[in-house]
Design goal:
The protein is α/β, with parallel strands linked by helices. It has helices at about 15-30, 50-55, 75-85, 115-130, and strands at about 5-10, 40, 65-70, 95-100, 105-110. Strands 2-1-3-5-4 form a five-stranded mixed beta sheet.
C-alpha cells in the first residue's frame, strides 16, 4: 500500500494544541502502518489547508489519498465542508482529482466514531483526573 497516502485532517485552531495533536497523531500513524506518505491539513486557521495538504503529495507517486478526519463524530464539517474542500462528492465520499497532472483517487474516511478504544481512552482520562 505504499502508493496510498493518508491526509490526516484536523479542525484547526488559533491555539497551538489542535495542530500539535494532529501532527503527533500523524507521526504515530506513520510509524504504525504499511501506507505510503502521511501528511496533515486543517479545515480552519492552521496551515496547510486541505488543498495545500493534497498538493503536498506531489511527487510521492501515490495513486490514492485517504482523507482521515481526526473528528469524533459526523457533522457539518465531515459531511459537507471536508468533501467540498477535497473536491469530492459528499454522498459518495470519494472522487478522482487531477492534482499534479496525474489522476488520484481521494477517499474520505469516516470520523473516529464509537469504538472500544475510544471508551478505554475516555475511562483512562477520567481516572487521570482523580490524581
Amino acid at each position: 500500500m505504499k502508493d496510498v497516502g493518508i491526509l490526516v485532517m484536523g479542525h484547526g485552531s488559533s491555539l497551538p494544541f489542535n495542530k500539535e495533536l494532529v501532527e503527533t497523531l500523524a507521526q504515530m500513524i506513520g510509524n504504525n502502518n504499511d501506507f505510503g506518505p502521511i501528511r496533515t491539513a486543517y479545515l480552519n486557521m492552521n496551515q496547510p489547508d486541505i488543498p495545500a495538504g493534497l498538493k503536498s503529495f506531489q511527487g510521492t507517486g501515490v495513486k490514492k489519498i485517504i482523507a482521515l478526519p481526526i473528528f469524533l463524530a459526523n457533522g457539518v464539517h465531515t459531511r459537507q465542508d471536508i468533501p467540498h474542500e477535497l473536491g469530492v462528492d459528499p454522498e459518495k465520499r470519494r472522487g478522482v482529482l487531477n492534482i499534479w497532472g496525474d489522476e488520484v483517487e481521494i477517499i474520505c474516511a469516516e470520523p473516529l466514531g464509537v469504538d472500544e478504544c475510544i471508551a478505554s481512552l475516555a475511562t483512562k482520562r477520567a481516572k487521570e483526573s482523580l490524581k
